[in-house]
Design a protein that fits this description.
It contains 6 helices and 9 strands; from the N terminus they run βαβααβαβαβββαββ. By secondary structure, it is an alpha/beta fold. It has one domain: Phosphotransferase system, sorbose subfamily IIB component (Fructose Permease, 3-Layer(aba) Sandwich), CATH 3.40.35.10. The strands form 2 sheets. A 7-stranded mixed sheet has the order 3-2-4-1-5-8-9. The longest helix is centred in the middle third of the chain and has 13 residues.
């Protein structure tokens, strides 16, 4: 079974990801691609605490993600991949076009970002990068929870 969800969520592993997305998808492993978290044992321990023991958590840097993405896509178990930002997901997509569908989940307010949807705040540069991924053939949609309607990046202002 392939990776079932490629999600950009600045909170990374949290209840909405584990319960809201993970349970309905039957996720058996989660890949978190983030250079900072990969370098921090403390943060890794913190994120592992939010995941059932039956779900494997893999922490990877962007370089490791580029190297190992095809292996995770070929895994027989159901999995999901998380990044903290669109730029990291774009780096993975450039390396592997089998990463076909990108979910923009919770990307929250910070200086310079504009509210695009109630759960999606992006700078103009982030929005342009997401649109460029779509122009390059990826399906890029915003969707905070699986029961909500997905919003195509092209319709987000």
């Amino acid at each position: 079974m392939p990776l079932l969800l490629y999600r950009v969520d600045d909170r990374l592993i949290h209840g909405q990801v584990v319960v809201g997305w993970g349970r309905p998808l039957g996720v058996q492993f989660i890949v978190l691609v983030d250079d900072s978290v990969r370098a921090s044992d403390w943060e890794q321990d913190l994120y592992r605490m939010g995941v059932p023991s039956s779900v494997e958590v893999v922490f990877a840097s962007l370089a490791e993600g580029v190297r190992d993405l095809a292996q995770w896509q070929a895994d027989s178990r159901a999995g999901l991949l998380l990044t903290v930002d669109i730029a990291t997901m774009a780096g993975l997509r450039r390396a592997n076009t089998r990463l076909e569908r990108i979910n923009l989940g919770g990307i929250h307010h910070r200086p310079g970002r504009t509210e695009r949807l109630p759960y999606l705040y992006l700078t103009d540069e982030e929005l342009a990068l997401a649109r460029s991924l779509a122009e390059g053939g990826a399906i890029v949609e915003a969707q905070d929870v699986p029961t909500a309607a997905a919003v195509a990046i092209g319709s987000i202002k």
